[in-house]
Write a structure and sequence with these properties.
Layout: H1 3-25, H2 30-58, H3 80-93, H4 99-124, E1 126-129, E2 135-139, E3 142-145, H5 148-179, H6 187-266
Antiparallel strand pairs: 1-2, 2-3
Helix pairs in contact: 2-3, 2-4, 2-5, 3-4, 4-5, 5-6
């Protein structure tokens, strides 16, 4: 093995050791694990939506040229980067994408990629300690704080990207159908499916948000109860100390009285 190869192997070994150290000193609680699971499910749903939109577009005759190479297999089996690349190519291929919508779609694709990269840091990266304190998921220099608030913020970004994706595509496809209807016409059913999908996605996230709000209220109530119990404990301790102080003062008075009596007797 050459010195360069050996140094590379040693660097990789050090990276593995640091990952093990980070995992050993960091702890991910139940809420964080639950949020990671929810985020993973949300991103998987987002990938399914992208695949669905691609399949909808691939039905159109003007886009049959994109059905070559590996298109005999479902788009769903592709990596998210490939799904997004095909999605953009298909939109451009319709010839119905104006500049304003194209910019919005490009921004949406970037947002989805950012969410996917952060999610990959969580799932495929390793835990480490940040310089400023606290744990973080790390992969290729990308850090995602390992906190409930950070994970929930990422989930909200995923949801926002999904809503934007569906809103933009539904408006684009509706306009495309009006401009270039196809025969036989599956478009009306597809439009209904798009609307139903968006409503389901929004309502399911609303339920999730309601659940989180309820948990926040429950946590606040528990915190208030614990603070009240702590205040009660401190008050009981203070009362106990006062009572002990009172007993001590009473003993001191008795001792002084007894000492005065003894002093008078000696006189």
């Amino acid at each position: 093995m050459s010195p360069e190869a050996l140094n590379t192997r040693i660097d990789n070994l050090v990276t593995a050791i640091r990952a093990m150290q980070g995992r050993a000193v960091s702890s991910v609680n139940f809420e964080e694990l639950e949020e990671i699971g929810f985020l993973t499910t949300r991103l998987a749903t987002l990938e399914e939506i992208i695949a669905f939109f691609c399949e909808v577009l691939l039905i159109r005759p003007e886009l049959t040229r994109f059905s070559s190479h590996s298109r005999n297999k479902p788009v769903l089996t592709e990596q998210i980067s490939e799904k997004l690349r095909l999605y953009r190519k298909l939109l451009d291929g319709t010839g119905a994408l104006d500049d304003t919508v194209a910019k919005a779609i490009e921004a949406n694709i970037r947002a989805i990629k950012e969410v996917a990269e952060d999610r990959n840091a969580i799932v495929h990266g390793f835990l480490c300690q940040r310089d400023g304190g606290g744990a973080a998921f790390s992969i290729r220099g990308r850090l995602v704080p390992a906190t409930v608030d950070s994970l929930r913020s990422l989930t909200k970004r995923c949801q926002a990207a999904a809503v934007e994706l569906q809103t933009l595509f539904a408006a684009f496809y509706r306009d495309l159908v009006n401009r270039k209807p196809i025969n036989p016409i599956p478009d009306p059913k597809l439009l209904v499916a798009l609307q139903a999908m968006q409503q389901w996605h929004t309502s399911s996230y609303t339920v999730r948000e309601s659940t989180l709000k309820l948990r926040t209220l429950q946590a606040a109530a528990l915190d208030a109860f614990q603070k009240r119990e702590e205040s009660k404990r401190q008050m009981d301790e203070a009362i106990t100390k006062l009572q002990e102080r009172k007993k001590s003062l009473t003993r001191t008075r008795e001792e002084l009285r007894f000492a005065r009596k003894r002093a008078r007797r000696r006189k």
